[in-house]
Design goal:
- This protein is an alpha/beta fold.
- It folds into two domains: 48 residues, Roll (Vcp-like ATPase, Chain A, domain 2), CATH 3.10.330.20; 182 residues, Rossmann fold, CATH 3.40.50.150.
- Helices cover 26% and strands 35% of the residues.
- The protein contains seven helices and 15 strands.
- It has a seven-stranded mixed sheet, sandwiched between helices.
- The N and C termini lie far apart (47 Å).
- This is tRNA (Adenine57-N1/adenine58-N1)-methyltransferase.
């Protein structure tokens, strides 16, 4: 089967593969086998959908979820602060839905990622297929702390409650100049990561709280949205000398 595309109608979007059929209040949409991004396909009621290729933000919305995925702003900070790029080798733990692993692979890295829940790991493998990076992401079911003897990595990314245990081994896991990036939902876990990074001699240790506010524009004026501050978690970065 060919890769699925997004079919967009105003603020609605549906993930469909060539040859599939969608039935909705807008009519029956039969997707041609030779459909390409940019094509317009009509339902039997004459409503037009535009085909669009999946990109990173679309994957965030259409991955099958096994929990709360890391937000796009967190992904951007991790890639930006570590410089993940073509040819990098990444060790990732706490795969979950696989949003981070897929983003790093799409940036050109080769990722080995561990997920303790075998069922979640299988879902993540399917998501890697959808993202087109199954050849770059090795999803393994297991506890990363039991698999820390191996090759050195350019970057280690962690989204686990026991991240400090892995950070303790970071000097052995990273190439010189390599980075570790840890996502923590709670400040207590973040403090443990920072203290461990200091103890093992990592440098350039920095922690950020990730907050994002949308802007509202209307006839009265422009201001940040009042719908919450948009806190997601804490990101800690450190580097091997």
């Amino acid at each position: 089967m060919s890769d699925p595309l997004l079919f967009v109608y105003e603020d609605r979007e549906y993930l469909l593969a060539p040859g599939e059929t969608l039935e909705s209040d807008l009519g029956v949409l039969e997707v041609p086998e030779d459909v390409s991004p940019g094509d317009t396909v009509e339902t039997h009621l004459g409503e037009s959908f535009t085909a669009r290729k999946l990109r990173g933000p679309d994957l965030f919305n259409h991955f099958e979820r096994t929990g709360a995925p890391m937000m796009p702003r967190d992904l951007g900070l991790i890639i930006g602060h570590t410089g993940i790029s073509e040819g990098d080798r990444v060790l990732d733990a706490g795969t979950g839905t696989g949003v981070l692993a897929s983003a790093m692979a799409r940036a050109g890295a080769t990722v080995t990622t561990y997920e303790v829940n075998a069922e979640f790991a299988e879902v993540a493998r399917e998501n890697m297929e959808l993202a087109g990076v199954a050849d770059r992401v090795d999803v393994r079911a297991g506890d990363v702390t039991e698999h820390l003897d191996g090759p050195e990595f350019d970057v280690v990314t962690l989204d686990t409650a026991d991240a400090d245990t892995v950070v303790e081994r970071a000097p052995d896991l990273l190439v010189p100049g390599g980075f570790v990036a840890v996502y923590s939902p709670f400040v207590e876990d973040t403090r443990a990561v920072v203290e461990t990074a200091r103890e093992v001699g990592l440098s350039d240790i920095r922690t950020f709280e990730t907050i994002q506010r949308r802007m509202d524009f209307d006839d009265r004026g422009s201001r940040p949205s009042t719908a919450g501050v948009g806190h997601t978690g804490y990101l800690t970065f450190a580097r091997k000398q």
